[in-house]
Amino acid sequence: MKTTLIFPGISRLGFNSFARGNYASTWVSHGLCSISAYAKSKGFEVDLIDLRKCSGWKDFRSEVERRNPDVIGISIMSCDWDIACKCAEFIKKISNSMQIVAGGIHPTVALDEVADNKNIDYVITGEGEVSFTDLLGKLEENVPSERIIQGIRPHLDSLPFSDYELFDFEQALKYPFRGKYLKAFDTPFVTIIVARGCPYKCRFCQPAERLLFGEKVRMRSVDNVIQELRILREKYRFRSLMIHDDCFTAYKNWCLEFCAKYKQNGFDQPFIAQSRADIICRNEALVAKLADVGLKSVIIGFESGSQRVLDFLNKGVKVEQNFEASRICRKYGISVVGNFMLGIPTETNEEAQQTVDMIKRLDVESPGITYYTPYPGSDLYHYVKDNSLSLIKKSVQYHRGRKDAKIRGVDYSFLNKLVYEVFEEPSRFYKILYRPTVNRVFKSRIVQSILEGAKVFVVWRFIKKSFRLNLRRGYRLR
Length: 478
Prior knowledge:
This protein has 19 helices and 14 strands. The protein is an alpha/beta fold. Helix 1 (about 30-40) crosses helix 6 (about 130-140).
């Protein structure tokens, strides 16, 4: 049974975008890596078509024809749904006998839409490692299977470690990372996931995540995580790390055990992780411990400077805690990557201004501002849908960037001015993003020689022009 997995994540980057300088251009899908590892552990042959490495649809078609798989699995985020549909269409034109299996978050939260696509033979909702591999076995033995399959939730420690090589990981590690908020982290830079699920109930996210991973958060054991890190260290000699969980610090005792064993096993690589302002405020001692073993940067979803908006989002955080969390992180030398949302349903211009004012007062190293996007499966998505607020016409608009208007009733021109106020203010923009690069460029020998040559040229032009002018004036005097 030859199986090909497809990573369709080009809705924002486009074709031929692999390793083009930002984080999204080299990141690996841990879901696909885990599915591949489990299927291979059961004896199946698995490879990958990464659309970021394809030059276009003609190239994609050639790759499918060259591999000629029996089964094709596509992991789909909502923003990549249209791309996934086009992949399925091309595959069926090549050979109708190739079985297409769709999985991931979008099939889980938008099952009816995915099931309506006649090019898709099977849909797996929830987690896919066990159920996808079971389906491969049934197809190999010509055993009938239901078209809609509820994924079996595995015990995380029982899973083999992620198959990073599926994404040609060593090649990706050769490229220097230029993501704006991770410039301080040296390559090779790796990412891991230590848990599935989130215990919090933010309306812009839940219950979609619980539909995917279940009601309870499931953690890998610390020993299991350390073992994977030891393998990654031996194989890739990584120099920095991202712990890619939604909230790494959600469970204090787990984190304390991790700190102890991370140090005991000789790890000194700096790492970045996500947390929440309220957790940081309640657990300063934990923050100090994490900083001691290598936490150099933390991503915090501050979201809004308006308490009413935070309550509307069911964030469970106070505005005052946002400031206190930022202060605590700076105290222990941890840089803060702040995530903020504008254009939230019911948000007024005054409340949006409060968010920008908070960003300035927080003085985070890297403020990430997005316009609220109604993700399918979330509570707020249904609010937007029930009130006919959505402006999204195609799946690419599910990206949380600031390119498109997302919902009705939002003054996006006003929001654009606010964003300009944050990023285009020279003192901040130059300091955060460009000053280091500008300094390096202008101090280089090549630029200095060019500047010197330009100075000589300008002075010569000035003298020549002045001489001509004086000659003309002299003629006039005569």
